[in-house]
Amino acid sequence: MTGAAPRTVGRKVADGAGLMIALRIAERLVGLASFSILARFLAPSDFGLLALATSVIAVVELFGQAGINLALIQRRSASRAEYDTAWTIDVLVGAVVAGIVAASAASLAVLLNEPRVERILYWLAAASVVGGFQNIGIVDFQRSFQFGKEFRLRLSTRALKAIATIAFALAWRDYWALVAGYVAGTLVSLTLSYAMHPYRPRFTLSAIRQFGHFSGWMLVRNIATGLSDHLVNLLIGRSISVAGLAFFSAAREMAEMATTELQAPIRRAMFPGFAAVNHDPALLRRSYVDWTAVMVLLTFPIPIGLALVAPDVVRVLLGERWLPVVALLQILACAGIFRASVAGAQLMLIAMGKPRPAAIVAVLRAVVLIPLVVVGIALADATGAAVAMFAMAGMMFVVNLAVVVRTVHVSRGELLEASWRPIVATLVMAAAVLALAPLLPGDASLSAAFVRLAVESLAGLVSYVLALWSLWSLAGRPAGAEAHALSFARPALGWLGVH
């Protein structure tokens, strides 16, 4: 690779990260607006039913998630046979998942003590078949850094799904609106994947051996990760109630929107960048340090801020009957500070072609988390489950950090040196919000909650940016997270026509 090539890759990753952040923010705003509207027309238990059913589908799907798409991105070159094989595998997995779910729907409804789940599962099984036919060609959007096209594809899908779901909710006023919206979203995604990419896949398994080693460990990792995520929902829905699951799922989704959901677009841009330089250990090491600092800068202050304003966020967005979400949201949001610090660890291992250690870490997480959640539910219902997930996030921070130090040979001091300014700026932000709170209206009305939320959010944003800018300026404005973050706005604004 020439001297200019790493800079070219870095620029593409930065541009891609900017667009992916803009995409994720737009997606989450659409989703949040949709959820806020739906929460006024549907009962919490309606959302719990869909969460229970989708968790069943997700658990079954895990056993077919071998990371084929990531394998295509990780390879420097991929043949048509590999693309077609990946698509054929997706189709077969979708059909098998649908068959298993449909055949076991009645038994699962009895096991989960929720008879309404049976009919929902039949519809979600049909959606699984449809989703398996999605055009594999759209992998190129990420593989070739064509993030603008991915932006349009995913945002269009999310917006059309939201519109359909709201329309169904206005007409039916029960959980079937959510089910119909789920199915409609799958159909929209399938249609747009072929409308926006010219690739037309064909049935073949001729290249299946070429995915063997990579996909084997990726399957282990995905199963472990998915079980630790989705079994939590099933345990809560079975042990507490679908309403309790609805509160927990809402808190989890809002907390993840503040951390994981914002990290995801950066990781999506980082992965092809890591894969492009995985032959150069020094460059990969430097890239990991830089992008970890970016993760901390962008995602460290948000969970802290969300925990501080959680009561008003729930009142404004969801309404009074969703107030049980507040305590859960505060716990789960704080767990995000651990994920922000090592968010790219497993992604980097996969990009290096080392899925085995990533799989081992994921298995460890599942083995520890599920018993913790069971104990937490027994002691304190959904709150206990949230505390268990917080504890698990802290443990995984230690484990992932140890793996990174050993694999990439990066020191803890390097990571701290690259990230300390955002951490200090976050503390300044928290102090500013806490100092401002006693000066604002204290009643529980919606208007007062809206005023508090607007003022505290603005104060938090301004204090964080000013503190971060001041610290960076005092340090001489070195290259690093702050410089990358400034560059993110350029491609997003350019795509919108703003220069």
Task: Provide a short characterization of the protein structure.
The protein contains 19 helices and no strands. It is mainly α and 499 residues long. The protein starts with a helix and ends with a helix.
Structural account:
- The protein is an all-alpha fold and 499 residues long.
- The protein has one domain.
- It is 81% helix and 0% strand.
- The longest helix has 53 residues, at 355-407.
- The model has no long low-confidence stretch (mean pLDDT 80).
Distance between the termini: 32 Å
What Rg is obtained from the alpha carbons, in whole angstroms? 22 Å
Low-confidence stretches: none
Enumerate how many helices there are, as a single number: 19
Percent helix:
over 70%
Mean pLDDT: 80
The total strand number stands at 0
Keywords:
81% helix; 0% strand; 499 residues; mainly alpha
SSE layout:
Elements: H1 4-41, H2 44-61, H3 68-74, H4 80-111, H5 117-131, H6 139-143, H7 147-172, H8 176-195, H9 212-239, H10 242-258, H11 260-276, H12 281-299, H13 301-317, H14 325-341, H15 345-351, H16 355-407, H17 412-436, H18 446-474, H19 481-495
Helix pairs in contact: 1-7, 1-11, 1-19, 2-4, 2-5, 2-9, 2-10, 4-5, 5-8, 7-8, 9-10, 9-16, 10-14, 11-12, 11-15, 12-14, 12-17, 12-19, 13-14, 13-17, 13-18, 14-16, 15-16, 17-18
